Amino acid sequence: MEAYGLDRFGVRSAEDIALHSASTALESDIRVAPGLSELLQDDLTASHVGHHMINGVIRKLDTPLFLRICDGEIGQMLSNLRGKGEHYMFLPRLLARAISSGKIAPKQFLITAGWEVLSDEDHVIFLEAWEKAGSRWIEVNDRS
Known about the structure:
Blueprint: E1 18-20, H1 24-32, H2 36-39, H3 43-53, E2 58-60, E3 66-67, H4 71-82, H5 106-113, E4 115-117, H6 120-132, E5 136-138
Parallel strand pairs: 1-3, 1-5
Antiparallel strand pairs: 2-3, 2-4
Helix pairs in contact: 1-4, 3-4, 3-5
């Protein structure tokens, strides 16, 4: 089976190249990483983390699992992690506001949880491979 040039991400075959539309695995990993959920209590940190994920392909670092989740799913996941019972957390656009000292950068936040947003170059490589592999989506409607 062909890995379409994605072997550095643990992809062994076309079967590994699928996009998941639910955030349950990412949410679980954030919950078990010490201190990450608490950092999301800060509105600015939550907003930065959410915007970092919008429109990107998110990859689990230790296994070939790829997510492409919509802004509503990201907002719901962040609301769940914040424990505020929000049905949907609106993520307002922030105009070039830096994360203040003491806060974690969105990229490092996801890496701490075992995930990353693919770089622009890797994003293009992944999507081309995904299309060649049949553009498979895995949808899980398991929200807590």
